[in-house]
Amino acid sequence: MQTRVNSLEEVKDPTFISKTIRVLPLKLLLILLMFLVLCAVFTFISLNTFKSFGFNTMVGVVKPSYEPCIGEKSGFNQFITQFSSNLMHKMSDEELFWRATFVPRIKKYPFERTPKIAFMFLTKGPLPLASLWERFFKGHEGRFSVYIHSLPTYTQEFPSSSVFYGRHIPSKPAEWGKMSMCDAEKRLLANALLDISNEWFILLSESCIPLYNFSIIYNYISRSKNSFIGAFDDPGPYGRGRYNENMAPEVNITQWRKGSQWFELDRRLAINVVEDTTFYPKFEAFCKPHCYVDEHYFPTMLTIRAADLIANRSITYVDWSRGGAHPATFGKGDITEEFFKKILENKTCKYNGRNSSICFLFARKFAPSSLQPLLELSPSVLGF
């Protein structure tokens, strides 16, 4: 009892209370100081960890909620030019064809558009006549585009100043007479359609040359009311004789057409070709060698869908007079002024419903050995 009384008395003692007040703040200060030291150490360790493992990467996960509207000038320019300069992409054919068939419903363009011709080169490998084409294109920038479909394993290096620089598209193997050849042609069309300014599409090979200067060809194509693709009814064994009755009802024998694979199409018909899922399965399944699908698929399909829009003739000259499965090849010894007179003169065809003496704009097949004499004659004979 005495001890308890003494404790109560100590509590009441002013001296005891003063000691207690002085001791408690000192302990709190020590605790606070230890806490601050720990915080500093933790902060130091954290900053060094972020620096070592990529602080920017961690912060970059948070993206700003604002994105430029496609209607803004910079965003719109990017939208209309994104596929004109960089041709390489990772789209599958299915994705590419779907993207390429977008059609604006408003006909008036909200930007200054110069219609261009897409020159599409279908080749296994090199372009031996490239320097002749360089001369043809010179001075006409902004009115043409170039696309090259070669074997996937082949890449030809062009200088950065060349019109062919960076113009290869993602490609796949294409075999003559098989559906893979038509696939390659559709792939070229689809990639060219991604550039909104491309209005006309010309299929060429590495052995093709232009027969006139750029201005004449541009005016001829741009002013034509029709696209140029051969499509005729051949009743013989190499025409109707290749028809398979399993292609009906999509394709009847009376609709079966034959023509050269080298064509020129306007934008509307190019989209028709790329978007086709009606006729393609029939040709893929029933036009097998020796049907040579590349001679029948496009002519037949476009005759059924848009007969009034095609001229039923090709604008690419070939010489079949020597016979055989392939046309004649022209080498160094063939390139003379008389040779070109034979191609260019004494010809008559229909152009916009009237007779015209200009029937062929291009010609094939020219061997690599023909390049030098072509370069020598082109200023006086070809006009460039």
Automatic annotation (TrEMBL):
- Keyword Transmembrane assigned to the entry: answer is yes
Query: Could you name the domain of life of the organism this protein comes from?
Result: Eukaryota
Keyword hit for Nucleotide-binding: no
Q: Which GO terms fall under molecular function for this chain's record?
A: glycosyltransferase activity
Q: Name one GO cellular component term.
A: membrane
Give TM segment ranges: 28-47
What UniProt keywords apply to this chain's record, in alphabetical order? Answer: Glycoprotein, Glycosyltransferase, Membrane, Transferase, Transmembrane, Transmembrane helix
What InterPro entries does UniProt report for this protein, alphabetically?
BC10-like, Glyco_trans_14
Q: How does it sit in the membrane?
A: Single-pass type II membrane protein
**Pfam families, per the entry:** Branch
UniProt-annotated location(s)? Membrane
PANTHER family (alphabetical): CORE-2/I-BRANCHING BETA-1,6-N-ACETYLGLUCOSAMINYLTRANSFERASE FAMILY PROTEIN-RELATED, CORE-2_I-BRANCHING BETA-1,6-N-ACETYLGLUCOSAMINYLTRANSFERASE FAMILY PROTEIN
Q: What is this protein called in UniProt?
A: Core-2/I-branching beta-1,6-N-acetylglucosaminyltransferase family protein
Which species does the entry assign this protein to?
Saponaria officinalis
